[in-house]
Amino acid sequence: MPFHERGFMSGTRGTMAVDWEQRIDVKRMREERKDRALSRMREAGLGSMLLIDDPNIRYVTGLAMTGGSGADHYSLLLEDGTVVHWDTADHASNQRYNCPWLTDVRYACPGLGNVPRASGRDSARSFLLDKMAQTVVDALDEYGLANEAMGIDTGHAGLLDAFESKGIDARPAECAAVMEDARKTKTEDEIECLRQVAAICEAGFQAIVENAKPGARESEVWGDAVRELWRHGAMAQGGYLTSGPNTWPKHQANTTDRLIRPGDLVYADFYNVGYLGYRSCYYRTFSMGEPTDEQRDAYETARDNLYAVLDEIEPGKTTDEIAAAFPDMAGEHADWYGADDHWQLTTNHWAHGLGLQLYEVPLIWRGLSPDHPIEIEAGMTMAVETQEPAGRQGVRVEEMVVVRDDGVELLSQWPVEEITVIDY
C-alpha cells in the first residue's frame, strides 16, 4: 500500500505559542480527549470514573503528570463532564491558579505506592488507603453519584475492598475498556504532538552525528543528545545510546562508559521522549566511518524487514496478518538466543502503539498476535522496529507512523535508506 502524504506544513511548525499561525490547539486537544472518555463512559453505564494511572489522568485533565511517589494524585470524571482532581498540597495549589478548566481541586491522600510502603506499619497503610477512598466517596456524595457504578483504572485489591466497604460499586474492567477505546486512535492535535516529538528526536540524532567520535564515551554522546532534546522543550524520560559490541545483543545497562572506536556501529533509541506528554520511540543506526559490507547488508536486512511490515499496515487488517511480515524464527536468529518461541524475543521485532505512554494499543508481534489478533483502525499511531546482527555488532531501525485510510504516514523523517555515516 502506498505511503500517506502528509499535509502542507504538517510537522514543520515551531514548538512555541504564536498568534500568527494555527499550531497545536491544546485547549481543543484537552476537550476532545475528555469528550471521548466521557462519551464512552456513559455508553458503559458508568456514573463516574476514578483515574489513578498518570496517562489516563493527563488524557482527561491535561495535567502534566510526570510520575510521583505513588497515588498522591487522582482524578474523578463525572457523568456531567465535571472533573474532581486530588493532588499534593503544592501541586493542588498551583493547579487552582494555573488550570482554570479544573474547577474542583482538592488535597490528595496517598493511599497507594511508596508513601504507605515507606510507613513501616500496616495500621498506617490501612489508614491511608481508607482515607484515600473516603475522599472519593465524599465527592461522589456531594455530586449525587454515590449510588451509581464507578469505573476505576486500577485493580488494587485493598482499594477495591475499601470502596466496597463504603457501598461503592467500583468496576475496574469497564474502566479499562473505556480508556483503551478512547485512547487507541488519536485526534489530529495528538498526531501533531507525535510529529513534533519525532522532529525533536531528529535534533537529538544530529547531536549524535556532531559529537560521536573515537574516544568519546557512550554516556558523553548520549548526554549531548539529551541536552538537545531538553533545549527543544521535550521531557526526556527514557532512551539510550550504545556502540560496538554493546549493540548485539543490546547491552543490559543500555548506555555505558564504553569508549567509541573506529569501525563501531552506534545506535540510539529515543524512547519515552515526551512533547506535551506524547511519547516517542525512534531508533537510528550510525557507523563510525564507512561501514563494512557485512554492516551494510545487516542494515539493509533490518530496513527491508521494517518496510515489509509498513506495507501491510492499513485499516481493517488484523494484527495477526501484519505480524506475519516480521521475521520468522530463523530471521529472529532464535538459535543464537537458544529460544524456541517468539514470545521469548520481546522487543526484537514488533510494532507498538504510541501516545501518552509506551506501550499503547495496538501491539503487532509474532509472540502474541497470531492467537490474539485485533483490528487496525485509522488514527492509530505506532512505532515499528527491527534489528539485525552484523558479526559481533548489530543494527536497529524504527519508524513512527500513523495509520491513514490510504496507507501509513511516516512521522519520523531521519534518512533511512542507508546507514548514517559519521565522518570523524
Automatic annotation (TrEMBL):
CDD domains: APP_MetAP. Residues 33-183 form the Creatinase N-terminal domain. InterPro entries: Creatin/AminoP/Spt16_N, Creatinase/aminopeptidase-like, Creatinase_N, Pept_M24, Peptidase_M24B. Pfam families: Creatinase_N, Peptidase_M24. Residues 192-404 form the Peptidase M24 domain. Gene3D superfamilies: Creatinase/methionine aminopeptidase superfamily, Creatinase/prolidase N-terminal domain. SUPFAM superfamilies: Creatinase/aminopeptidase (SSF55920), Creatinase/prolidase N-terminal domain (SSF53092). It comes from the Archaea. This is Xaa-Pro dipeptidase. The lineage of its organism: Archaea, Methanobacteriati, Methanobacteriota, Stenosarchaea group, Halobacteria. The gene is pepQ_2.
